[in-house]
Amino acid sequence: MKMKQMLKKAASLALVAVLAAGLAGCGQKTEAELPEKAEENLPEKTAETAEKDSVVVVMGPSSEPEAGFDPAYGWGAGEHVHEPLIQSTLTVTDADLKIGYDLATDMSVSDDGLVWTVKIRDGVKFTDGEPLTAEDVAFTYNTLRDTSSVNDFTMLDEAVAADASTVEFHLNRPYSIWPYTMAITGIVPKHAYGPDYGSDPIGSGRYIMKQWDRGQQVIFEANPDYYGEAPKMKRVTVLFMEEDAAYAAACSGQVDLAYTSAAYSDQTVDGFSLAAYPTVDNRGFNLPAVAAGETDENGVPLGNDFTCDVNVRRAINLAIDREAMIANVLNGYGTAAYSVCDKMPWYNPQAETPHDPDTANALLDEAGWLTGADGIREKDGVRAAFILLYPTGDSVRQALAEETANQLSEFGIDVTVEGVGWDTAYDRAQSTPLMWGWGAHTPMELYNIYHTKPGGKYAQYSPYRNEEVDRLMDEALASPSLEDSYELWKQAQWNGSTGITQEGDLPWVWLVNIDHLYWVKDGLKVADQKPHPHGHGWSIVNNVDQWTWQ
Amino acid sequence: MSTDRAFWKDRRFRMLALAAAAAAFLLAVTVLGSVWHDAALETDFSRKNLAPCLKYPFGTDWMGRDMFARTVAGLSLSIRLGILTACVSAAIAFVLGLSAAVMGRFADGAVTMMIDLVMGIPHILLLVLISYACGKGFKGVVIGVSLTHWASLARLIRGEVLQLKASPYVKIAEKLGKGKLYIAFRHMAPNLFPQFITGLILLFPHAILHEASVTFLGFGLSPEQPAIGVILSESMNHLAMGRWWLALFPGLFLVASVLLFHYIGQTVCRLIDPGSVHE
After folding, report:
1. What burial class does residue B84 get, using C-beta atoms within 10 Å of its C-beta: 0-12 exposed, 13-18 middle, 19+ buried?
2. ipTM, 2 dp
3. How many folded domains does chain A comprise?
4. pTM across the whole model
5. What digits encode the pLDDT tens for the residues B42-66?
6. Which domains does chain B have, with CATH numbers?
7. Secondary element (H or E) of residue B74
8. By a Cβ cutoff of 8 Å, what residues of chain A touch chain B?
């Protein structure tokens, strides 16, 4: 009996292997067959495209908002920021990531930076016919302050409707980049907000959510009463699929735009072209800037005896060949990253560091890290070695970690790559470099990464502290105007004598910004994209209302 | 007719030779895999996504890792884990099975209950639970796999012991005043040996498949490690791009080693307990 069972098991496994091989074979075949199929459908398609004003977009399954389209639970104002489409926002970020107006018509801030007064447009209606007033705006912000778990609203004391078209935000600390928060916060109706709002949202934005089949798709239709320019795309369908399914959907021509990754970039899909959009979706790793030995209040060990040497960190930054990395790992679809905020108005170009192997070696030699018998440098008994963690399941970060290890091995630095789950990654990163992904449309990210944690001894994600950097960022937040604050954010990165760039403390090394790749059906004209933030999801449809078919 | 050919005609010898060859192959995989562990981790982006060729018989993956080295290293890990599992399970099964039969009704009831308990929970679920509780990773897989395979062998041994207990020669030994332990080791153990060895070898395929499943599901090793399950689950992402070699060869190798173990187990069973063939 037992043996029979075993045989059955073995046989079924063999079957799986053969099936797998068969599948792969089929995959290639269907590709070859596709053009014919496409032609068969052609007459029908042309009739359609004459008046085509709908689009089918494929995103990854993680883009589907679990809690629905409620800003309080991360819609738009979440970990991955984007424009909320269904709701209007007070401000918007333009192509250069500066601030423009949506609902707002004017805004001003008090001299002490604590009160923001925003005038809003008249005559804006929610899609249920009720007018949008300052009451709704105040209600939205107060609700988010109390409930939002994904975005920071702790600086907001209270939002008050001064009159029907004026809202005042009372802050408990100066926060000059408040307009960036306003750009991602969709305004919800006070009269129609409740626990079910996420699955049945009402807004005043460009689109109305018509249908949501959980785990499958969301259908948006243009808002006929929209106060701005009428959307050109009347119907937007968003499908959620895994990467291989998205590729297959593009191959079969059933969708108009499908996300993909560099791994697929050497494939071709008939009737589609590959579009690459530049991003600030960066990857880089932290280098704990203090020596090992300490623990934080929860007993998590802090610091690393190798990376606490600033010369080591500088040498690593010089040793990394970013262009080779982009060619090897991203098939060329990326740009070199030197900071967490490349191309943003608050980016200090001083961060740019050329690939310079000779200087890197010289720096290590000077600092006393000399090559030992096994080809690995060491100093005072400490080996020039570290573990580089990456989140399991993220093949791009894994490949970047491996490439980093390969590149650094030529400099006598021994890097071991290890996968780690997010349940332990944050704690381990306090003593071990981790391959991170960041990039947002707000300078607050600089603060989150480099500023000492309020009430803590070091920065939140990797132990580091520099009082001058802290001071400049605090000053930037307290700055009366946004324009002035950009300058201070830049100084916090490098002010001529200290900072977080190559010449400064360099507690993080940035590698690449990953282009967001999409299969775009021929004839679909995707409107110009501003640099996408971290998260390969909703940002692509920020301006879907301006897309057209040709 | 030379004696060599006569030997070859002897079915006993033929089976032994084939089983030895199979064992030698598995041993070679085990040893080579341990030696190649570092090679299996090595990435080289200048040779990524190569189809099988002379230099890389199993091709390379998206980070330019040599899939042959990875497959062999993965199988080696599986087999070594199989050995450990087989030893641990066999020891547990032997002790429990024997004590169930020897130590009286109460002990027998307790052991039977434990066996039923372990066999009553779906195996893969129990495995995932144990390895998760033990902190996932390599340690979790090792503990999980080695602690969940003893039940069927223990049940088998218990059954045999019960049968032996009723046999005349054991009864006579009892009447002669021999102690229970004496009877267990002196009279019963030799009779259990064939079932025990066969059962032990047949644990391997189980352990290997379960190790592969649990790493495939992502509860086991970190993805850079070479393990058959990890290799197969990674290959799923690349099948759509036509990289069939990532799944086919590791899959076939896994099946082949499972079948080889199965064959060895059956052969050994027939050789040391010819009577069982007629059962």
Report:
1. middle
2. 0.81
3. 3
4. 0.85
5. 899 889 889 999 999 999 998 999 9
6. 12-36+61-278 (1.10.3720.10)
7. helix B67-102
8. 2-3, 6-7, 9-10, 13-14, 16-17, 20-21, 23-25, 27-28, 31, 243-244, 247-248, 263-264, 266-267, 328-329, 392-393, 395, 398-399, 402-403, 405-406, 417-421
